[in-house]
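Q: Hi! First time doing this. I have a protein sequence and I read that you can turn it into a structure. Is that right? Here it is:
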Amino acid sequence: MPDRLRVLDLTDELAFNGARLLVGLGADVVRVERPAAAALSRAETLHWHAGKRVVGVPESAEVLDGLVEQADVVIESGPLEELAGVRAGSGAVSSRWPRAVHVVVTPFGTSGPRSAWRADDLVAAAAGGMGWLGGQPGGQPKPPPREQATQLAGAHAAIAALLGVIARDRTGRGQLIDVSVQEAVAATLETAAISWIHAGRYPSRNGGVYEHVAHRVFRAADGHVAGGYSGSDRMWTDLLAWMAESGEAADLTEEKWSDPVFRWRGREHVDEIVARFVAKRSAASVAEEGRARALPWAEVATAARLPANPQLVARGFFARILGEGLPADGVTDVGFPFPAVEPPRPVRLTEPLPAPVEAPWRTAHPRGRRAATGTGRPLAGVRVLDLTWVLAGPYATKTLAEHGADIIKIESRHRQDPTRFAPSMRLRPDAGFDDSGYFINFNRGKRGVALNLRTEPGREVLRRLVAECDVVIENFSPGVLAKWGLSYDQMAELNPGVILVSMAGVGQSGPWRDAVTFADTLAAMSGLTSETADPGEGPQGLTFGLGDMVAANSAVLAVLDMIAAGRAGHVDLSQLEAMAASMGPAVLEAELGDSRTEAESRDPRAVVRPNRHPRMVPHGVYPTSGDDRWLALAVRGDEEWRRLAEHTGAPELAALASAGLEERRGREDEIDDALAVWCSRHDGASLAAELQGLGIAAAVVATGRDLVEADEHLAARGFYPVLDHPIAGPVRHEGIVIRMSDTPGALTAPAPLLGEHTDAVLKELLGMDEEELARLRDAGVLE
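A: Yes, that's right. Below is the predicted 3D structure, encoded as structure tokens:
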């Protein structure tokens, strides 16, 4: 974090996570109280705001302007019409504070036909397509637990803040940066929208079974585990050997099951046999043996048990929060996504403390602003060596590419990105090796170099490339780079200014350092999977790689933090820690005894329907007209409830129009049942617009098709731009989330063919001539 960056926090729950992430990087964050803000629980307050200083509601706009003048970054969030720092005019918005890096997070963005629409996490997750992916077939959709939609938006806000600082150091100018929660969600769905783009179909909720990866949650003898058999061939052969050792492989030892395509088509049969095998064993033993065999299996942990995770404890992940009325040594909270190089990741924080509005900052003087040195996108001139594959790493590097970085992606015929060749990831029925729909979306804007790293000459070329790059991002198993003579210390000898970000599943150190992980196993270890259970049922898990993209955002934040500070170093990023950090206040709630809902606090045996909220009634997902069509709805406060109840015309709701929150909570089942009947008589899109007109947050639970084809707002904002791929032709891609007014990002090129830019890159960066290229090619180095 550059020189104790001063951040003014004007966020509501849409972007709490953004300001928290900057606290984790050492920023000096001052929070301004918001008038009439909803009261948070103690656990929520401690989690989201520990480490900050707080000033009261400013007495005037001039007082607020004075605070802004002292800050480097302002992060503001909420409905567009309620933002203090945004001015509308001539169909566009601008910042009241043009000298500041002003990050604005709104439900749907600052432009477009729905810019005035409202949303909380549930409604934003529905509008962005995430809500559709969770839940049981035939039941109501539900988004991932722990407000993942708004946490994603907050992560993008933190990234935007650092991009803005880097841009200001180049141009000398502040700017307004627009982050839409809907778009932050829509860009984080893995295949939900791109399946429609490439195949004219979209995945649907199915109770937690991955559609494109053979992973899921299995019931063990005493709990649940997450795991499967996708990935390299070894994932299958070693699992098969494990089952065969105890005589439990059934017919899976037959040769036909060694064919991955045949195995994929017979997945239901394979899963049945794997489920029988797992059910005879304890969850802990399956996870332990899986780690020993380097297979991706993990026990489904709960938030209450998370602080005992030996890997997280060994790496100093957790934070202790000190405060009035707490034990002397504080209480345990989840920590931050990665240990920054400097300052260290906070492990002790104080509850938010009041500060005088005249001098709220801890640091004595404002941070000095550097002289302008250039123009263009913030990361123009930054070169990144991309040694990643599948999703987490490629998602990170494609984000850096959007904002100007030159990404050099290393593959070879011997180590292709699996998303090029996995049958389930090609998406289009006619797709081949070089035009996999999954690969195309997450690798746009990169240059592809074919380099056989199994050969010593190939590794020598890699070392020469390290010397020419500013950033190296890798997600190899721990120790692989060191075996190639490319530990961080060895890289630093070649290139003293290099930034290395390692993205191992659980990190470079700790007792589980060699664990093999997939997104589902990370979610299971982190505690998130345990909260996907419906009342009385087992956990369902997630059906898309949320953990990969959460880790990717953390990697981007790490890179930008180092660039903004002008610092070299090695960031040891654990994808597990990034995912555990997104558990919100769950660990604090378990320790403090806070409950997520009033119903649970009154009676822990109470059956609580999905999608309910402790401070909003009604708050849920309701059927609308049409086949499997749904509307998400969130009512804030008594006045919104009165408008909704009277608008429905339903006698049973109108009779409760004057009911306060506690009375509504006591009759929540009755209210939900009546709303379900009323909503089912209406078209969802029309009803959402109608309710938004009343100032009530509502949105259709969008499918992948809805996002790409039917969402007029995303279309107006150009969220699915087209790039012309040399094989697939014109293809829509998921767009850029962070919209910078002065230094906008861009999608400049489609994903590379395997080795497409090998000669050009090696000539440009290493000065190779045709003779040297030919010699390397003949030796099998460039294949």
